[in-house]
Write a structure and sequence with these properties.
Blueprint lengths: L1 H12 L21 H11 L3 H12 L5 H17 L3 H14 L4 H13 L3 H14 L4 H24 L5
Helix pairs in contact: 2-3, 2-4, 3-4, 4-5, 4-6, 5-6, 6-7, 7-8
């Protein structure tokens, strides 16, 4: 138990998302995917969203494995999240999650959309679900901590705004 606590505390110290007011956006899938999907993810990661989306959409026209299709939709979702196209992001992530309902990257992206729309309670639940698939993922853990903090701040502000019973 002490080892697990130490690991969690060590991870918490190094989490960049916990120090900002926004979650780290757009988790992509790189490994074990087709070349076009990997290249599209690299372009999206470099902030070249239009090029990355175009290449990823091109990959969807190829003969892909089911996991590659899920990866492509997750990567499209990532680009949408990073460019503020939240409705489109949800549509792409939902396609990925229909293939694999436990895909941590897609769940992280869905939770990030929920966070950005101010639904911190749902975002916390979704980040926790993503962590079940990748328990030691620093990005997801940092996003979860940020969402929990925002939820707590929102609840405190709501409690303070309520008239006190005299």
């Amino acid at each position: 138990m002490k080892t697990l606590t130490a690991l969690i505390l060590t991870a918490l110290i190094a989490l960049p998302a916990a120090a900002t007011d926004r979650p780290t956006q757009g988790q992509k899938i790189w490994l074990n995917s087709s070349q076009d999907i990997r290249n599209g993810a690299a372009l999206i990661d470099a902030g070249k969203f239009e090029e990355g989306v175009k290449l990823t959409r091109k990959a969807l026209d190829d003969d892909l494995t089911i996991s590659d299709i899920a990866a492509a939709y997750t990567n499209l979702c990532s680009a949408d999240v990073q460019t503020g196209r939240y409705q489109q992001a949800m549509e792409h992530c939902e396609k990925a999650l229909k293939i694999n309902s436990r895909m941590p990257e897609a769940l992280n992206n869905v939770a990030t959309v929920q966070f950005m729309l101010g639904d911190y309670q749902t975002a916390v639940a979704t980040y926790k679900k993503a962590l079940r698939g990748k328990p030691f993922d620093d990005l997801i853990m940092g996003n979860l901590l940020l969402a929990q903090r925002k939820l707590q701040e929102t609840q405190q502000a709501t409690d303070q705004a309520k008239p006190s019973a005299s």
